[in-house]
Amino acid sequence: MPPAPFEDEDELVARAQEGDERAFEVLVRRHADGLFAVLARFLGGSEEAEEVTQETFLRAWRGIGGFRGDSRFFTWLYRIGINEAKRRGGRAAGAPRTTSLEREPEAEVPDWTHAPEASADQAELQAVLDAAISELRPNYRAALILRDVEGLSTAEAAAAMGLGEAAFKSRLHRARLSVRKAVAAYLGEGR
Amino acid sequence: MSGGPLARLRFMRDHFWTGSHVSAYLDRELSAEEAARLERHTAACPKCHELLETLRRTLAGLRGMGAGPAAPSDLADSVLERLRSGR
User: Fold this and answer.
1) Are residues B76 and A32, on separate chains, in Cβ contact within 8 Å?
2) Domain ranges, residue B35
């Protein structure tokens, strides 16, 4: 199928609310990858993220009549997705973020290629960040992923979590400090 | 830190204030006056300087994590299939 031409999101939502499946299909194609990215980070794996992505759109279709347009459609969608992921228990406490060999910390692999040191440092730092994120409680993890990893604005991320901006910022700050502690320890500067 | 009791009191007040505003500083959400207050304090306080710099590096690392696991190429199709089946 060719890419859908750009259609106004508010118009698509309004049509979907009237039962227009074609309009909702455009919304699915527009937002599925973004939602999956957030959920894969939150859940720590692709398989469950795909399942939750499907479930999220199913719930969104059933509940779109209740979307009042107070926030952007994708933040409403992300909120459903995060709630569904949390309902399923999120990432198991202390579990590795992924089981894929491709994503094992690179520090454990001997470097025979004399790759630039900066790349190895970046890979090590990413492993530290991955582990620290996985240790966060779900509400803190979601705040950090939405704002700092996925790059949503504070307003968007707060809306996706159903929080006011002040409450969101407080939660984000605590999440950041927790991850910073792991980074400081990695850098040898932990207190 | 040096100076009399008032200076020490001001230092401690700025110390705690900095700890709770460093995120907002890095997000450029402080006023110019507040940012200057934080910068003055971090220049004089090694602990807050370290907090600021490690948090700055943490945020840079988070923002540079790049794409996570790639979405399946047929993700939207599988979603639509599930919607049509109504399961």
Assistant:
1) yes
2) 5-65
